[in-house]
Input
Amino acid sequence: MNLRRFDCPPSGEASRSHLKAKLTAAVCAVLCLCLQPPIFADHFPPSDIAIGKAEHLLGGISIHNDTVASVMVRMGQPDKFEESTSRDYPLGSGERRYEWNRDGIRLRMGTEFYTDKKAMTLVESPPIVVDIWGQHGGGKLGITGSGLSIGDGLAKVKKLYGDRSQTDPHSVTIQWKDETTLSIDFSNDGHITHMQLFASQE
Output
């Protein structure tokens, strides 16, 4: 895998509607091979699908309405940027990761990209995955759209999202009908230290 790091990220992005047909086919291999688990959880059985409005906001970033440019307007230039490609991916495609550290919260946003050979331009997706880490709440950066915050416990998760989920001793994964997935990790004393929100690409 070829991994490049930049102080300032390259420009170039596209709307979700423009990407829907081209990007899904061009970068399917990227998603399957590179983005980290647990974002590729299996489809949940109907009995485990969460009821109610799907969560689409984490760390102040909307996985449906934001773009890389709009996030940078609010957040400024990232503290860290990585771009990865591989011989196994379609030529000119890969993934990007943008990372900020603000108010005790580490926030990372992931996108995918492909090269439009006719226009000779790189086309980048909106955010498809957002991660936040921390030990205590960090304002808007440490919270979901529904109000679940870094530092909260399992009772708050159930209060906001209900009981339908998949769990193990230190994590809860919630999936909605649109296959948006929220993964939540807890410390040994039961407080949230990490959340990941993944937008379904189907």
Helices lie at 16-26, 28-33, 68-75, 154-161. Confidence is low (pLDDT under 50) at residues 3-8, 24-40. Residues 2-198 form one domain.
